[in-house]
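Reopening this one. Same input as before:
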Amino acid sequence: MEELSINDTLNGSVPDFSFTTLLIIDVFNDMNFEGGRELAKNALPMAKRLRVLKEKFKRKGIPVIYINDNYGKWTSERAQIVKASLRKESTGREVAELLIPDKDDYFIIKPKHSGFFSTTLETLLASLKAQRLILTGLQTDICVLFTANDAYMRNYQICIPEDCAASEKIDDHTYALEKMKRLLKADTTPSTKLDLENLIQPSPSDQHLQRY
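Same output, byte for byte:
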């Protein structure tokens, strides 16, 4: 019987490094709270576009990192979080159904608004040698904003496709995007107009971001 190395048994099909990564934030949420129906209404068309974008990135070999809140449940695991949002009584069920993680997708559980706070995200991005982050998901003015701010403070290039994030209120979504574009230098080009070939390649302007 052929002996397997640790690389054979533990490594998935995700590339050893990638200058660009796709982050999907808080799409697994039952939305059973005040304002949840409004959020679900705005999130559903977003989820349909995000699913298409994710498929395009995966065909290019770009890793996908789900970052999801534990909603105060410290014993939560990936499967539990996803399953809870897929229940029949979950207001966010249709959104969750569109974005179920693949086996080779990363999944990071966060306790607070930012995907960087008290998580392994920074370590994972360092391992991938990531320089450019595509931030998507929910909500634009809360967890996407907080994660984008922390990414900016760490000198990552930031892209937040305006049609692949959503908030409970359209005005909050628009305002947050404008702030991130102006203050965090975020590219908010819609997913349908993104130049993926250019986006996944390092550029000369990335050199000052190289930390490894």
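So the earlier flakiness isn't reproducible anymore. For the record, The domain at 16-204 is CATH 3.40.50.850 (Rossmann fold).
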